[in-house]
Write a structure and sequence with these properties.
There is one protein chain. Helices cover about 25% and strands about 20% of the residues. By secondary structure, it is α/β, with parallel strands linked by helices. It has a single domain, classed as Rossmann fold (3-Layer(aba) Sandwich), CATH 3.40.50.1000. The strands form two sheets. It has a six-stranded parallel β-sheet with strand order 5-4-1-6-7-8, covered by helices on one side. Helix 2 packs across helix 3. The protein starts with 5 loop residues before the first strand and ends in an 8-residue tail after the last strand. The structure holds magnesium ion. The site of magnesium ion has 8 residues, from loops.
């Protein structure tokens, strides 16, 4: 994961679940901020948008390649330096793959490890949660 510089991350199932922060998610965001990395959190649920997220993009709908392109343009970063972090194979991961990004599937949301084989594409990495991302 060394060549990953920037992060686009889904919120629900990745940083929060219900009204709870996922353990380690606060530290993950803090590390991104400390290291001056560009990042963006995608959500279609503004209820969960914490004030301390410096960069936010509120959207209606699920991540798709056009949204990913907009996110990369917004951050002014390149797809090859950026990873998409999400908990859904059929939205987050496919959007990242189709946009030329590497992808991290976290198992803290809706997807179980055994579900991955049902899809014709693979995430670059599969982690239990964002707490496992080394920064
Ligand atoms: Mg999600």
């Amino acid at each position: 994961m060394e060549s990953v510089k920037h992060f686009i991350t889904d919120m629900d199932g990745v940083l929060v679940k219900g009204m709870q922060m996922i353990p380690g998610a606060g530290r993950f965001i803090s590390r991104l901020q400390e290291q001056g990395r560009e990042y963006l959190v995608l959500t279609n649920n503004s209820l969960y948008a914490p004030r301390d997220l410096a960069h936010r993009l509120h959207t209606v709908g699920k991540p798709n390649p056009l949204m990913m392109r907009s996110a990369l343009n917004y951050l002014d970063v390149h797809s090859e330096d950026t990873v998409m972090v999400g908990d859904r194979m059929e939205t987050d991961i496919v959007a990242g793959v189709e946009s030329g990004m590497r992808t991290i599937l976290v198992l803290s949301g809706v997807t179980r490890r055994e579900d991955i084989d049902r899809f014709p594409y693979r995430p670059s990495w599969v982690l239990d949660s964002v707490a496992e991302i080394e920064l």
